[in-house]
Structure formats: C-alpha cells, structure tokens
Design a protein that fits this description.
Layout lengths: L1 H13 L19 H13 L11 E2 L7 E2 L7 E5 H7 L4 H4 L6 E3 L11 E3 L5 E4 L2 E2 L14 E8 L3 H4 L6 E7 L7 E9 L3 E11 L6 E11 L9 E15 L2 E14 L6 E2 L25 E16 L4 E21 L16 E28 L2 E30 L15 E21 L3 E16 L2 E16 L5 E12 L14 E12 L7 E12 L2 E3 L7 E3 L2 E15 L3 E14 L11 E10 L7 E11 L2 E2 L6 E2 L2 E12 L2 E8 L7 E4 L4 E4 L4 E9 L1
Parallel strand pairs: 6-9
Antiparallel strand pairs: 1-2, 3-8, 4-5, 6-7, 8-9, 10-11, 10-38, 11-12, 12-13, 13-14, 14-16, 15-37, 16-17, 17-18, 18-19, 19-20, 20-21, 21-22, 22-23, 23-24, 24-25, 25-28, 26-27, 28-29, 29-30, 30-31, 31-34, 32-33, 34-35, 35-38, 36-37
C-alpha cells in the first residue's frame, strides 16, 4: 500500500502512458476494503435514482467525477441518446434546442459549426473530457457517434481551464460494450437527404476482457441553401481492454470527411427583416459562386481513455487525444457593411457587391488530462478529492486571401460565373499555443445533509505567432454549498470563475486577450428518490471581460467587446409518467448588458420550450409513439436595440413505430415551415433560421 501511494504522484506528474498502471496487483483493490464499503454505503445510496426516459441522475461534466446531478452545485442539463433519437437531431446544435439557458440557431443556418449562446455568450466544446474545437473553423461532430450531451452552465475553468463564462458542452462518445448489439439505420429526407449509418459493438473474447465498437455514417445530401451540399463520410472504430474490474483502457479513432458549402449568407436588412420592393430574399438564396464555394473538413483523431482503481481510496485517470484537422473554407458574401442603411448598388434594391474570402488551415492538436481521485473519511465528513494536471498544445498553419467583386450580384435573380476571379492566397504566420493547468477539487459530504465543493486551479498559457509571443497566467476558484433534504429537495449556492486563453487569431492575425469571468449562482433542485423526475430552478449573476462579439466592419471577424454583465433565471423539468409519457419543459429569462451600453445581439430576454412523447403501449416496448414540441423564442434586437427581430414559436413533431428489431420513424422540425429571422446585427446583416426539415428513418437491430 505504501509503495502504491508513493507511485501515484509520480504517475500524475509524468502523465505516463496508461499501459504501465495495469501491472499493479489487480487484487490490491480487495485489501482492507470491507469496513470502508459498509461505511460509505449511506452516501452512495442517497445519490442513486432511476434513469428512465430523458431524466439522468449522474453527470461527470461539472465535476470530472461520477456525481449525482442533485449533488452538484451548478446547473446541468443532460441530453440522453433516447432524447436525441426521439427528436431526430441531425446536428449537435439541433440537440440543444430543448435545454434551459441555451439559444440554439442564434445565427440561423450555419454549416460551419454548432454555435449557440449559453447564458448569453459562446460555449466551449469538449469531447470525452478533452477540448475538441479550437478557433472558429472546425469539423462538426456527428451526433450518431454520441452517447449523450451534457450542458454545464456557468464557468468551469477550475477543472477545464479553457472554458467560457457561459459554460461548456460536454459530449460523450459511444464506447465499446461487452454485450453484443448491432444496428443499421437508413434515412431519407427533404433537401435530397440520403444517409446510411451502422453501429456494431460487442465482446472480442470469451473471457470478457476485450470489446469493440465500429460506427459509421455515409451521407449524400443537399441543404436549405442552393448549391450547398451536406455530405459526410465518417467512421469511428474503438476498442476496450478490461483485464479486471479495476482497470479499463479504451482507444477511439475518428476519421471524418465532410464536403459542404457555406450556408451563412449575411443578407441585408431590407428583404429579410425590413421591407424591400422586390419582396423577401428567398431563404434558399446562395450568394457565393458554384465551383468556388466550399467548407470542406477532414478530421483524423485518436483518443486514449484510461482508468485504474488502486484500492478503495485511489483512482487514477488519464485521457489524451491527438487530432489533425484540415479546413478548406472559400466563400463570397454581400457587401452590406460599407453602407448598412443602403447596401444596394441600384435604385431597385436588388444588386450588391460581394467580398471573397479564402482560408485554408491545417490544425494539429494534442490535449491530455491526468488526475487522481481519492475517496476517504475524516471525522464525520466524506471527501472526494481530485488532483489533476492538463496540458494542451496546438499548431496551426494557414493560407488566406481576400478580394472584392464589384460586379453587381442580384439577390433576387442571381447570375453566377459572371466574371468572378478568386483572390490570391498567401501563407500567413503559423501559430502555436500551449496551456498547462494544475487543479484541485474537494467534494465534501458533512453528515447526512450538507455537501460542499471547493476547487482551485492555476493556468499558464502561451501563444506564439511568428516572432511574437504572449504569456498569460491566471488562478481561478470555485465554491459551492448544498443542503439535501430527505424529500429530495436540494437548495444550493455557488461561486465560480473562468479563464479562457484564445489560441485563435482574428482575421488580421492579431491575438485575442484571454476571456475572464466570475459568477454567483443560487438554485434549488428536486429529485424524489427513486423517481424519473428532476426539477431545477436557477438564478445567476455573471460578469465577463473580453467577450467576443461580431465585428461591425468585417463579418468574418470577431472583436473583444469589453465587459458584460448577465443575469438570468432558468427553469427545467424532465419526467416519465407511468411508462407512457416522457416530458421536458424549460423556461429561460436572460438580461445581458455590455458596459459600452449596447446589448447582446440575437439574445432574447424570454425563451421557453416543451417536448413530450406518448408511447401507446410501453416506452421500452413495441408499438406506436407520438411526439410533439414547441419552442418559443422571444423578441431580440441588434446591438443598438433599434432593429427588432420578432418573437416566434416553432413546432416539431415525430411518429415512430417499433416492432421487434425494427423501428420506423418520421421526424419534422419547424413543422409549419415558418420563414423567420434568427437575428440581425447593426453592421448590416440578418440571418434566416432553419426552414422545415422532414426525415424518415428505418432502423434494424440484430
């Protein structure tokens, strides 16, 4: 025992490769564990509830430990695989539409990424506990590859370092299972969507030490925008080695090749939000050039997830990922910025000039997170201590080009290939980033009712661009206190801080200052023991410095808009009723004010949603299921508060039939096919929201 405890700090400091740890005596976990197991049982039992329908009792995104949501002093939403299946989500952004505190589709139809507001600002995305995306150009994650999505609202820098003030989205991949399961799914839908997917998993040996998973997606599809494809070829093989109950090592690979175009069109106010003598600009309008426009991504990554339990006290976990991404981004967009009040070249308000832009990037990333967890008792308190070190490194090579096409482009009756000449593309200075964070967290259970969380972290971040080098250091902390009543009611208060170094550059190749924030939060959670019901009510007061905002002069750029104060109330409920009905309901009130007197464009003060599915026979059995949902998005404004984007209510629906190994379903989003503006900016552009999507699917399991 003494030798093992001396070994642990060395493993933590060196971030050694995982195959060294299993050499420890696997039987050590059984030594001296009987008394402690009995003593800890009451603590474990209090956190146990039933996972049924859409309700999940545990989430690891906010604490990096398997902590019940009801015992975490932070607002969390968990989007289960069952919910994603019932709602027929096609992107990660689709999956965020029925969560409190989130404004999905904030900039309408954008093929470049899954952008959304979380508590009035952008979020940071993590996959399997490791940061996934760097910069604004990246490959979108395939939702079919995911087991669940966790939305951790509010700062989380103590554990992650690289996180915005609004929160983070924690994705969890499907992993190998030791029970065999195989499925094939075919989809067809509007916009000529055709997709074939498969998911195979099971044991590789009779002893139960090895398991595999192989998931693949092939898609040939158009999109809402003319001439813009939505094609994907992706495969994700993985393998798990579990020599005993105390050791698990999983390797996951991902190969993904997307062929897309740019669907974010930066259309003028007149013809979208404001009147135009020619009517509305069609929502499918393509403003770039066929054959030139593209947003193609190639992603290759390998992830290692290792965990070893030494004894009843110590557990060692190490995660690491290497990824190599290529992004080829070429587009044209209207010049609505030189004169936002009248961007047209003619009196008929039809034609505009266009800018062209090319960015061809190669990203190499390595991220790792190594931590040790200790569960122990001191007097009448139980401690779950987490000590960790994470390191991130990225290298980016880019070639860019800009141009201006003065040939009038008719937004209502476009003529393509009318003398357009692509801009010259030249290399720009490479950028290198490195971030190192050392953190500690203690989750303390005092007696039968009090739960406290204390954490601290120190970060050092370095950004090198050409001959320029900048270094930032920061120390962040978190504190939380909860009281758990026997009825399942848990009020809490918390304080959290954020620090996010930005490893991307603006379009002028200038580095950004780190984002910094702090938040006070108070709330109450209610989950009756043993039920599939979870209710959460939250109030927060959040302050952020150096937040990113759209550049009023360049639509492809972001600027740092100083300080901002955001307050909000979030209500969220999920439940299952009598094995027949699954329900989700949310309400969000948000008030965000930057210190320059503007407002956060595109952020409504009020939002609400409700989604329900009725299973005619049984939720887990054969038969018909009928689902319907409504999403209310309140009025929002541009930064000046002058341009008013009207409120809207969007409706979604589904019908499914399950019989034995077969499941047939039809999902529709924006059933009434509303044409609406998602948001508009004072610099001159507006963004249409997604129109109606209808997808039919057939799944066979064997």
């Amino acid at each position: 025992m003494i030798l093992r405890r001396k070994t642990l700090p060395l493993l933590l400091a060196s971030a050694s490769l995982p195959f060294a740890a299993p050499a420890q005596d696997a039987g050590s976990a059984q030594q001296g564990g009987g008394d402690k197991a009995v003593q800890l049982a009451p603590v474990a039992v209090r956190g146990v509830s039933v996972d049924a329908g859409y309700t999940r009792s545990d989430a690891s995104g906010a604490t990096k430990t398997d902590t019940p949501i009801i015992e975490t002093p932070q607002a969390i939403s968990v989007i289960s695989n069952a919910q994603m299946r019932d709602q027929g989500v096609l992107t990660v952004q689709d999956a965020l539409r029925y969560s409190a505190g989130v404004r999905a589709d904030a900039y309408g139809v954008d093929s470049r990424g899954d952008d959304a507001f979380v508590r009035g600002t952008s979020f940071t995305q993590y996959l399997d506990g490791l940061r996934q995306n760097f910069g604004y150009a990246y490959a979108r994650t395939e939702p079919y590859f995911l087991d669940r999505i966790e939305i951790v609202r509010g700062p989380s820098s103590v554990l992650y370092g690289q996180g915005t003030t609004g929160g983070l989205i924690a994705l969890t991949s499907k992993r190998p299972q030791f029970t065999a399961s195989h499925e094939i799914e075919a989809q067809v839908g509007n916009n000529a969507r055709k997709q074939l997917a498969f998911d195979f998993t099971g044991p590789l040996d009779t002893a139960g030490h090895w398991a595999y998973r192989l998931i693949g997606v092939y898609r040939d599809s158009d999109s809402q925008i003319d001439h813009v494809a939505d094609d994907r070829k992706a495969i994700a093989p993985s393998i798990t080695w579990m020599p005993d109950q105390d050791t698990r090592w999983t390797l996951l690979a991902n190969l993904q090749f997307d062929h897309n175009g740019t669907s974010l069109n930066f259309l003028p106010h007149a013809g979208t939000l404001l009147p135009n003598p020619n009517g509305h600009i069609p929502t499918q309008r393509f403003v770039s050039e066929p054959g030139f426009d593209r947003y193609d991504t190639q992603q290759r990554s390998v992830t290692s997830l290792f965990e070893h339990r030494f004894d009843d006290t110590w557990t060692f976990t190490q995660s690491m990922r290497y990824s190599h991404d290529n992004v080829d981004y070429r587009t044209l967009y209207p010049d609505v910025y030189s004169n936002p009040a009248y961007p047209f070249l003619d009196d008929a308000q039809r034609t505009v000039a266009r800018y062209s832009y090319v960015s061809i990037d190669r990203h190499k990333r390595f991220v790792t997170d190594t931590h040790a967890q200790a569960d122990f008792d001191v007097a009448s308190t139980h401690h779950r201590l987490l000590i960790g070190l994470d390191i991130g490194y990225s290298h980016t090579d880019s070639r860019q080009g800009n141009g201006f096409d003065a040939v009038p482009f008719d937004l209502f009756d476009p003529v393509y290939r009318n003398g357009f000449l692509p801009p010259d593309v030249t290399p720009i200075a490479s950028s290198h980033t490195r971030q190192t964070g050392l953190y500690a967290q203690d989750q303390i259970t005092i007696g039968e009712h009090w739960i406290g969380t204390v954490g601290v972290r120190h970060d050092r971040a370095t950004l090198t661009t050409g001959d320029d080098r900048s270094v930032d250091n920061a120390t962040t902390s978190r504190f939380g206190l909860m009281y758990r009543f026997d009825s399942g009611l848990v009020p809490y208060v918390s304080y959290t801080e954020s620090f996010q170094p930005l490893d991307s550059l603006d379009v002028y190749n200038r580095p950004y200052e780190p984002l910094r924030g702090k938040q006070y939060e108070a709330g109450v959670k209610y989950q009756p023991v043993g039920t599939a019901t979870l209710l959460t009510a939250t109030y927060y007061d959040l302050r952020e410095e150096n937040r990113l905002a759209p550049d009023p002069e360049n639509p492809l750029n972001q600027i740092q808009a100083g300080k901002a104060k955001t307050r909000g109330v979030e209500l969220e409920a999920s439940t299952r009723i009598a094995s027949h009905v699954d329900l989700i309901g949310t309400y969000t009130w948000t008030k965000a004010r930057p210190d320059d007197g503007t407002i956060v464009a595109g952020l409504p003060k009020n939002q609400g949603s409700v989604w329900g599915v009725y299973h005619v026979n049984d939720a887990d059995g054969d038969g018909f299921s009928f689902g319907a949902g409504a999403r209310y998005i309140g009025t929002n404004y541009d930064e000046t508060g002058v341009l008013k984007v009207p409120q809207k209510t969007l409706f979604d629906a589904m019908v499914a039939y399950t019989q034995g190994p077969w499941r047939f379903a039809v999902n529709a989003a924006n059933v009434t096919d509303q044409r609406y503006n998602a948001s508009c900016l004072a610099r001159g552009d507006c963004f249409y929201g997604p129109r109606r999507s209808i997808v039919g699917s057939a799944r066979y399991r064997f």
